[in-house]
Design brief:
Layout: H1 12-32, H2 34-37, H3 42-61, H4 67-80, H5 89-111, H6 115-120, H7 122-147, H8 152-163, H9 167-179, H10 188-215, H11 220-247, H12 256-277, H13 283-301, H14 309-331, H15 340-364, H16 372-380, H17 387-392, H18 395-403, H19 406-441, H20 455-462
Helix pairs in contact: 1-3, 3-4, 3-14, 4-14, 5-9, 5-12, 5-13, 5-14, 7-8, 7-10, 7-15, 8-10, 8-19, 9-10, 9-19, 10-11, 11-12, 11-13, 12-13, 12-14, 15-16, 15-19, 16-19, 18-19
C-alpha cells in the first residue's frame, strides 16, 4: 500500500534547516543572554538574514530561477535598507562563515572530479585557466588605465580581482546539471570545476604579489616566491590529508562514512583558515580540492565510485551553507559608495574584457572533442563573479586607509566599487545562463543521479 505524504513533507529538509537554526539561536540565547543574541543583536539579525534568504531562494525556485539569486538579492536589500551592517569582530565572524561555506562547496567538487577526464583534458584545463584569464586581465588593465586613469599596477590588481570566477555560483549549478545527466559523458563538470579552481588560485596568488608590490608589504624575494609557495603549500597539505583519509578510518569501520566526513571536512577547514592566518589564502582552497580528489581516488576503488556517501553529506550540508554564503556576499554590496563616473566606466571595464574572455575560451576549446554547443557552454561558464570579489575587494582599501594616503585610497575605493558592480551583474546573469542553457547545450545521459522520468520533477524542486 502506498502512503501519500502531505505536501509540506516534500519540503521537510527546508523546515528542518529552519528548526535547526532556531534551536541554535535558542541555545545561544540561553548561554549569552539578550545583549549578544537578543532580537536587537547582530547575531539575531544574521539569523533572520539567513532564514529570509533561504525563503527567497525557495520562492524563486518555484519559477525556475536559481535560488542563489534570491539569496544574494536579500543580502543586498537588507544591507542597503539599514537592517544589518557587519563591522568589528562580527566582520571576522562572517569571514569565517564564508570560508566554511567555500570549503563546503569545494569538497564535493573535489570528490566528484573524474581522474580519467583530468588526464584526457589536462592540457585544455591549463589553457582555459591561463589564456582567457590573461586576455581578461590585460583588457581590464588597459581599459582601467584609459578610462579611470589607473596606474598600470592598479589596473593589473583590478584585472586579477575581476578575472577570478565564483565557485559558489558555478559549482552548485554544475552539480544540478550533472545530477540530471547533462554533460556527464564528456566530463564537462570536471573540466569547468578544475579549470575554474586553477584560475582562481592563479588570480589570488598574483593578486597577493601585486598587493605586496603596491603597498610594499613584503620583501622582493617573498613577492617573487609568493605564488609558488601557495601552490606548494596547497598541494602538499592536500595530498597529505587526502592520503590520511584514504586509510583512516579503515573501510570496514562501523562509522566509516561519518568519520571520513569529519576528518576530511575538519582538515580542509584547517587548511582554509590556517592559510588565511599565515597570509597565503590561496593555498586553502587548493588544498581542499587536492585532499578531496586524492581521498576519493582510493574510495572509488573500495566501491564508492558512483555513490559516495561522504560527498552526499557535504551536498546536504550545502543546503545550510548556501543561504549563508550568498546572503553574506550580498551584504558586501553597499550602494552608498557607488559613484556615477566610476560605475559608468566600471561597467565598460568589466564587460568588454569579459566578452573577450568568453570568445577566447571558445577559441581555446577548438582542438577538443567537444561539439559546438558544449564549447559555447564552457565559454559562458566563466561569467559568474562573487566569492573572490567579496573577499578580496576591500583588501586594498584597508591597506590604503592604514597608510592614510588619499591617492591610494581613491584608487582602492574605485576597485571596491567595480568589484561590487561585478557581483551585482555577473552572479545572477551567469547562474541563469548556466542553468537555462545547460539542458539546451549539453547532451543528457542516463548516468546522472536521476532517471529521465524524474528530470522535470527534480528541475521544479531544485531550480
Amino acid at each position: 500500500m502506498t502512503v501519500k505524504l502531505p505536501r509540506w513533507a516534500n519540503n521537510s529538509d527546508k523546515f528542518s534547516l529552519f528548526l535547526l537554526l532556531f534551536l541554535v539561536w535558542a541555545i545561544a540565547y540561553s548561554i549569552f543572554g539578550d545583549e549578544h543574541v537578543g532580537v536587537n543583536s547582530v547575531i539575531f539579525r544574521l539569523a533572520v538574514l539567513f532564514i529570509v534568504a533561504k525563503l527567497a531562494g525557495c520562492l524563486l525556485g518555484l519559477i525556475r530561477i536559481p535560488p542563489m539569486i534570491g539569496m544574494l538579492l536579500i543580502g543586498v536589500l537588507m544591507r542597503n535598507v539599514g537592517f544589518i551592517e557587519i563591522v568589528g569582530d562580527y566582520a571576522k565572524f562572517t569571514s569565517v562563515l564564508r570560508q566554511l561555506a567555500l570549503v563546503n562547496i569545494l569538497l564535493p567538487a573535489g570528490l566528484g572530479l573524474d581522474a580519467n577526464a583530468l588526464r584526457q583534458m589536462g592540457g585544455m584545463i591549463a589553457n582555459l585557466a591561463v589564456v582567457p584569464v590573461a586576455i581578461e586581465v590585460v583588457g581590464i588593465t588597459i581599459l582601467a588605465h584609459l578610462t579611470l586613469d589607473f596606474p598600470w599596477l592598479w589596473g593589473s590588481l583590478l584585472g586579477l580581482l575581476l578575472a577570478a570566477v565564483s565557485p559558489a555560483v558555478i559549482i552548485p549549478c554544475l552539480f544540478e546539471l550533472q545530477d540530471l545527466g547533462y554533460g556527464v559523458d564528456k566530463g564537462i563538470h570536471t573540466l569547468v570545476i578544475a579549470a575554474s579552481t586553477l584560475n582562481d588560485i592563479l588570480c589570488i596568488a598574483i593578486f597577493g604579489v601585486m598587493l605586496g608590490i603596491i603597498f610594499s608589504t613584503q620583501s622582493l624575494l617573498m613577492q617573487i616566491f609568493y605564488g609558488p609557495i601557495i601552490f606548494a603549500m596547497g598541494f602538499a597539505f592536500g595530498a597529505a590529508l587526502g592520503f590520511v583519509c584514504q586509510h583512516v578510518p579503515h573501510k570496514d569501520e562501523t562509522y566509516v562514512t561519518t568519520l571520513r566526513t569529519l576528518l576530511l571536512g575538519l582538515g580542509c577547514v584547517l587548511a582554509a583558515l590556517g592559510s588565511n592566518a599565515i597570509g597565503y589564502m590561496g593555498a586553502g582552497p587548493l588544498g581542499c580540492m587536492v585532499a578531496a580528489f586524492v581521498a576519493s581516488f582510493i574510495w572509488k576503488k573500495q566501491g564508492w565510485s558512483s555513490n559516495n556517501p561522504v560527498k552526499a553529506n557535504f551536498v546536504l550540508l550545502w543546503k545550510f551553507f548556501e543561504p549563508i554564503s550568498f546572503a553574506l556576499i550580498g551584504v558586501e554590496v553597499n550602494f552608498s559608495i557607488l559613484e556615477t563616473n566610476t560605475v559608468t566606466w566600471g561597467l565598460l571595464v568589466l564587460c568588454v574584457p569579459l566578452l573577450l574572455r568568453i570568445l577566447t575560451s571558445f577559441a581555446t576549446t577548438q582542438c577538443s572533442n567537444l561539439n559546438v554547443k558544449e564549447k559555447i557552454f564552457v565559454a559562458l561558464s566563466w561569467i559568474p563573479k562573487a566569492t573572490v570579489q567579496a573577499t578580496l575587494g576591500p583588501t586594498a582599501l584597508v591597506l590604503a586607509r592604514n597608510l592614510n594616503d588619499p591617492v591610494l585610497e581613491g584608487y582602492a575605493n574605485s576597485v571596491v566599487i567595480i568589484a561590487v558592480i561585478s557581483i551585482i551583474i555577473t552572479s545572477p546573469i551567469g547562474a541563469i545562463l548556466i542553468m537555462q542553457l545547460g539542458p539546451k547545450l549539453l547532451k543528457r545521459t542516463k548516468t546522472g543521479a536521476y532517471t529521465n522520468e524524474a528530470v522535470d520533477v527534480v528541475q521544479s524542486e531544485q531550480l
